Fold this protein.
Amino acid sequence: MKVLIVGDIVGRAGLNRLGAELRTRKDIDFCIVNGENSASGRGIRDKEYNEILGYGADVITMGNHMYYRKEMASEYAKLEKLAIPANITNLNGNKHVIVEKNGKKFGVINLIGSFAMGEIIEKNITNPFVMADEQIKLLKAENVDYIFIDFHAEATAEKIAMGYYLKNKVNAVYGTHTHVQTADEKILDTGMAYITDVGMTGPKDSVLGLKTEIAIARFTTGHYLHYECSQNEAMFNAIEIEFDDNTKKAISIKRINE
Ligand SMILES: [Fe+2]
Ligand SMILES: [Fe+2]
């Protein structure tokens, strides 16, 4: 069984690239996409939600950019394939998503980290490790075959620790949020797949998706300049994990950075 996990989709360029990639990758059994930057770099709306699912994604995960779309605050809970960070306390939405496909039951959990994620996050979250256990318990009670954890976090150590913490409990732990793919993909001794960050599917010449000149001006002047999503050609950052259907252990994990 092959699973494709796609890193943060940024803006129109990222969406177009996702569409092109999913049209050609026909051997994928299950696909999870992080959509937190799909609406012009900031958040997601119904429009991007439907577009991403229309390309063939099975579940969409989120992150801190949920807060940039105030008009969506009461809408997330209505999007049944959208998993929001389960440990956020002041927004409503699915704390996990279960999908039945190809005779298997898949559970997806999104969690947000506790370090350097911005004040609004740090004030409005519970401990991601404790919440992971809570949500895993609920998924196991539903007899899911596979559990995937998107840990949306800045701190490398927190993500690595989460990987080891969950190595006996889930099938994959992967990081999102930094928009830069890490080269530490591995399969732990329990058969759980891990990578610290999947990376970004968005504009190549940009600072994490933001127009380079705006990013540079922010740093050189120390002033906040309005966010503008870069629109140049997008790269595709993802991981492909193959599992043994009998043992549910990962056989391989491959990085895609094209
Ligand atoms: Fe992101
Ligand atoms: Fe993020």
